[in-house]
Ig-like domain-containing protein
Amino acid sequence: MVRSIEVFIFCLLVMLQAPFINNLKLLNVRIANHTILGSSTTLKCTFDLEGEHLYSVKWYKNGDEFFRYLPKSKPNIQVFEKSGIYIDIDKSNSTEVVLKSLELSSSGTYRCEVSAEAPSFQTVFQDRDMITVEIPWISGLQHEYNVGETVNANCTSSKMEIHAQLVWYINNEKANSTVEQGPYYKKYFAGSGQLVTTVLGLSFTVTDGHYKNGEIYLKCAARLSTHYLLYSDEKIIRFTKRPPTESIISNQVKQAKMQENSISVQNTPNIIHMVCVLVFCLRNNRKMLVAY
Ligand SMILES: *[C@@H]1O[C@H](CO)[C@@H](O)[C@H](O)[C@H]1NC(C)=O
Ligand SMILES: *[C@@H]1O[C@H](CO)[C@@H](O)[C@H](O)[C@H]1NC(C)=O
Ligand SMILES: *[C@@H]1O[C@H](CO)[C@@H](O)[C@H](O)[C@H]1NC(C)=O
Ligand SMILES: *[C@@H]1O[C@H](CO)[C@@H](O)[C@H](O)[C@H]1NC(C)=O
């Protein structure tokens, strides 16, 4: 007897639940695992209402709501101020939120939460982590080197929660570890914890064979491994040996290699001309590829 009451109650509960089961579904929350400082990124959240009516789409970062879409309100979109979050409202809607001018503090756990209207008030959500990083930079290089001179440079990673794995390339070949120094780690104490920059030195004596068409091509790549993935970016520096009339340095930053994925390109040329007795030209080209 007791048993059949239990079965009855169980069935009743299942029946009561039934109209709400398999209704509102979150199909996909897509957020780039890594984003680049200063760039933009699109947070995507797709859902299937399965006959329900949409009440709200809310976005949270580390538990704080920063975006709300209510189809029945005017305006539809409300945004809440949060450090590291700058929303491009014109490009945002119920399924996409565009974040611009990313900062290192944009890193965090993002949640998309979708709710249906009465009577079900069903709510579904998913979390995704995003890390905003800065491309590594090269320092210490002179404008020009002759055969027999020593090239000394450092490659420094962005401040991160993890140690970056840095690699130097000379003319697109991985530099022998005998010409690398470090890595050295510099720790910084941030609000919530500790951040680290990684520095990898490069030191080698230039030989005639290093010059390819009068230039040596140096590149530093950062390989950031988080829980599941690797992300890398590259920085490229070319410089020429001293020619009779002029010397040209060009510094290119390239960031690539991020597994499959869609790509957007950002270009920031920055040219400094130095006119001495001879003409020196320092050119700095930054190119970024941002991918999902
Ligand atoms: C992003 O990270 C998730 C888990 O953290 C992983 O499953 C996914 O493959 C990563 N995506 C890319 C493009 O690396
Ligand atoms: C949101 O905007 C994106 C890009 O403009 C567009 O592709 C998408 O269809 C829009 N979604 C809705 C539900 O309007
Ligand atoms: C590279 O960094 C190390 C450690 O911070 C420093 O001692 C060295 O002087 C730097 N070298 C150059 C060429 O900037
Ligand atoms: C790296 O340099 C060492 C010492 O000069 C040499 O013995 C070794 O073969 C080099 N390795 C590569 C991969 O070039």
